[in-house]
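Suppose you are handed a protein chain with no further information: no name, no annotation, nothing but its sequence. What can you learn? This example shows the usual starting point.
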Amino acid sequence: KVPRTAMAVITDIGNETDIHPKQKEPVGGRVALAARAIAYGEKITYSGPVYASMKVKGNQAVLSFTHIGTGLLAKGGDLKGFTVAGADGQFTSATVTIEGDRVIVSSPNVAKPVAVRYGWANVPDVNLFNKDGLPATPFRTDVK
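A reasonable first move is to predict its three-dimensional structure. Written in C-alpha cells, the prediction is:
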C-alpha cells in the first residue's frame, strides 16, 4: 500500500531468540533484489509469494498469490505453517497442496473454510517459497 517499497522476508533465516538474524548476507541479498527491481527497474523476481486472494470451493480454500516468479515450491517437504477456520473462527491445522500457481488448503475439521492463516506465529515454521528461492510472506485472509 506504500508505493516503491518492499519487504525482505526472512522466516527461513531468522533466530527465535534474537531479533537480529546472524546470517546477514541473505538479508542484504533480498534487500538488494528489491532495490534493483523497484529503484532501478530491473525485470527480476525480488519477492517471495504474497497472498492476493482466496476463493472457497466446497471444503477447500483456494489461495492465489502475486510474486510467484517461476512457480511455487514447498521447500524441504510437505507444506507447513497453514491453519484454516470455518464460521466458528476456530483455527486448526490444515492439509495443503500446490496446484499450479495456487495453494489448496483444507481440513477434515472444517466443512466450509472462511479464513486461512500462514506463518501466524512469533517464530513460524513455514516453507512456502517461489522457485526463485524467496520465502512467502506470512499472512491472514481474515483481515477486515
